[in-house]
Amino acid sequence: AYPPLETKTDVFTAQAALFVGACISIVACCTVIYKYYQYRTVRRPPLSLLFWRTISDLAFSLNFIFGLFIQLGVDTKDVFWGELDEYANLCSGLAFYMQFTIFSAEMWFLVICVDLVLSLTQPFRQQQADNPKYHLAVWLSSLVTGLVLIWSRQQGAEDLHICWVRADNTTGRANYNSTSEACSDSNSQAWEGLFTFTKPTIMHWLVFYGWLVLTLLFSAVVVVFATARLSVGLQATYEIRLGTIKDLRLIVASGFLYWLAVGSAYVGLNVNCFPEFTSFNFETWNQTKFVLLWVTMALTIALKGLVDALLWHKMARRLVAKEREQQYIRSSTENRTT
Q1: What DSSP string runs through 116-162?
Q2: Average pLDDT, the chain
Q3: Distance CA 160, CA 156 (A)
Q4: pLDDT tens, position by position, 189-226
Q5: Are 60 and 114 in contact (CB under 8 A)?
Q6: Nearest in space to 189 (alpha carbons), one of 314, 3, 25
Q7: Which letter does DSSP use for residue 44 in this model?
Q8: CA dihedral 101, 140, 36, 47 (to 10 degrees)
């Protein structure tokens, strides 16, 4: 459980941070879509698979856009709209949408790793033939986990003011009467919520965190495996294998760094027992720190699409530049002939 945000200003701050991060991610993902359909050379693995990951990220970001507009439309401004009974069905719908989009993005990460391994072990296979299988695996698994969440009745308002797996109010946040009390609690009761396996905690691990950990571990194994196979194969295909491994390392590193940033923000919200600066008023500094931590957590989550879009552009830069050069040469040749 996260430390509580207790005023309507803080609730709006969390929603606004998610909204701003989502807007940035949506713009970044749209630039990927534009280049993907403008340049043909980027429509092949791993860029074509990373493209679909950014599509999932774009859909994921829309969840935060919806959330802020719904919050602005409710009468009770000091409470997250997902906690209100009259919005229970809408919150359940967005919880399913949240699960579907966030899980599909990580499944595309897994597919990218699998495809790169297949490229190294089966260099002459027809990559396009596997695309329907990839889509079926990603979208079907995302649908199943979303339905599991709904059927388990564990969907609802999250502590971060989003609708996903419902907050566990039996530990952590429910034990505090105020934000400052949570921050000054040297026993760090919030950690109990991390390691007490209640139904919401189990559901978090069942539909997302468990799969995420396994995917990251698998990707690390894939990098080791691919590096070990670099010297295996024809000398003529060495540069291709080396380029494939470089792409794999970049993709895996970005995945690890992103979730490390998310995890760091999460730990920062739950520890709540940092050394205090005597030059600050204790109560004021606690509240300021909490707002900063919440904004950091919200932005980190909502900027997921930006991270993957930047990765796509970096990997596509060489291919785009080469295709532009070819288009220029072709255009110049046509002009001279006319």
Answers
A1: HHHHHH-TTS-GGGGHHHHHHHHHHHHHHHHHHHHHTT-EEE-TTSS
A2: 81
A3: 11
A4: 444 555 567 888 889 899 999 999 999 999 999 999 88
A5: no
A6: 3
A7: S
A8: 100
